[in-house]
Amino acid sequence: MSQRPRVVITDFVAGPLETERKVLADIADVVALDASSEEEIAGRIEDAAAIMMYHTVSITAQTIDRLKQCKLIVRCGVGYDNVDWRLARERGIDVCNVPDYGTEEVADSAIGMMLALTRGITLFNSRLRESKGEWLYKQAYPVWRLRGRVFGIIGLGRIGTAAALRAKALGMEVVFYDPYVPDGRDKSIGVRRVETLDELLAQSHVLSPHCPLTPETFHLVGREEIAKMPAGSFLINTSRGGVVDVSAIPDALASGHLAGAGIDVLEIEPPPENDPLLVAWRDPEHPAYHRLIVNPHAAFYCEEGMLEMRAKGSESCRRALLGLPMRNVVN
Ligand code: NAD
Predict the structure, then answer these.
(1) Which atom of ligand 1 is nearest to the CA of 79?
(2) Residues 6+ apart with CB under 8 A from 107
(3) pLDDT in tens, the chain (331 residues)
(4) Of 100, 211, 113, the residue nearest 153 (C-alpha)
(5) Rounded to an integer, what distance in angstroms lies between the CA atom of residue 41 and that of residue 9?
(6) Which helix (H) or strand (E) holds 105?
């Protein structure tokens, strides 16, 4: 009797696996390894017909070279920088992502951070709780009207576009830099394109990167770039940690050049305790204490999106096992 194919979930989802089994149970067995490192999946994944992976575990050559019959690796999420997709391609393995499970939520979080900072909401709240300053609007002085201010986007993809539409609804002027977007997207959603990052930086009252992490975008925004933004501007990062060099943020907040920053993603997650950004953020004497928002890579999160991500990842496995045309192949 031939064995049923196995779909192996490497990390993050430990069970119950009702969502995955609802899609796959008639054609495959689904198992979850609940691993926290690539070493932990060795010896448990070699016979997988398809793999679903999240962000805790990386899949590199050490795993790919041991796979005997794998047709597909699904990175259940958007960014696929933790799987060696080039090598997978060489071995004839498709790599898919689940591109859209959290598009609206990440955009909502970016805009939420912007509103919390630009309206003085976090500042009022944290100062009043500590009985600091007067019970007065002046605590957040100066607060500027958002309408007419420039919301600068790096990367007008799915999330960048969703953020653009939200910022437009607030009356902001949306400007973007994305060398890979063909002409016309700007016209279809009514935003303005600039040709260079410097042009974008020079006019962005709020800067929000929404590009992937690639060798080209690593530290795309750092000390020099922040210095090119208008004085008193805001920086939000919900893309990938490496896109912004956060070591520049404490000084920029201390000088007032940045009036606030919202950081959902860091290069190392969770970050080391002595990360200078966190040290400043925890220091009641540092402006970052009131003007910096740090979130634990949570912008994508909502219950519906989590289920959508698991179901869509499972559907990709189903298509691969049945030999149907694939969607969202990234390699
Ligand atoms: P997408 O692929 O739809 O869009 C990315 C855009 O970035 C594309 O338009 C691309 O042309 C552009 N781009 C690529 N290189 C660029 C460069 N050098 N300069 C300027 N633009 C560049 O991706 P998406 O679904 O919109 O996701 C955007 C980002 O959000 C990714 O980094 C992803 O990892 C991240 N993300 C974060 C969370 C979270 O929870 N914080 C969740 C999902 C996605």
Answers:
(1) 34
(2) 159, 162, 163, 165, 166
(3) 568 999 999 999 998 999 999 999 999 999 999 999 999 999 999 999 999 999 899 999 999 999 999 999 999 999 898 999 999 999 999 999 999 999 999 999 999 999 999 999 999 999 999 999 999 999 998 899 999 999 999 999 999 999 999 999 999 999 999 999 999 999 999 999 999 999 999 999 999 999 999 999 999 999 999 999 999 999 999 999 999 999 999 999 999 999 999 999 999 999 999 999 999 999 999 999 999 999 999 999 999 999 999 999 999 999 999 999 999 999 9
(4) 211
(5) 10
(6) helix 103-118
Q: How many A from CA of 185 to the centre of ligand 1?
A: 16
Give 252 Cα–ligand 1 centroid separation in angstroms. Answer: 25
Q: Ligand 1 atom 30: the closest Cα is on which residue? A: 239
Torsion, Cα of 248, 249, 250, 254 (10° steps): 110
- 285 included as an active-site residue: no
Domains and CATH numbers, the chain: 6-101+303-322 (3.40.50.720), 103-294 (3.40.50.720)
Tokens of 113: 């951070």
- Positions of E strands within 145-223: 150-154, 173-177, 192-193, 206-209
Contact 147, 171 (CB under 8 A): yes
Measured from the Cα of 162, ligand 1's closest atom is 26
Burial class of residue 216, CB neighbours in 10 A (0-12, 13-18, 19+): exposed
For residues 301 and 45, give the distance between their C-alpha atoms in angstroms, rounded to a whole number. 28
The DSSP call for residue 83 is B
Which residues contact residue 19 at a Cβ distance below 8 angstroms, ignoring those fewer than 6 apart?
A: 307, 310, 311, 314
| Partners of 152 in beta bridges | 175, 207
| Whole-angstrom distance, CA of residue 112 vs CA of residue 110 | 5
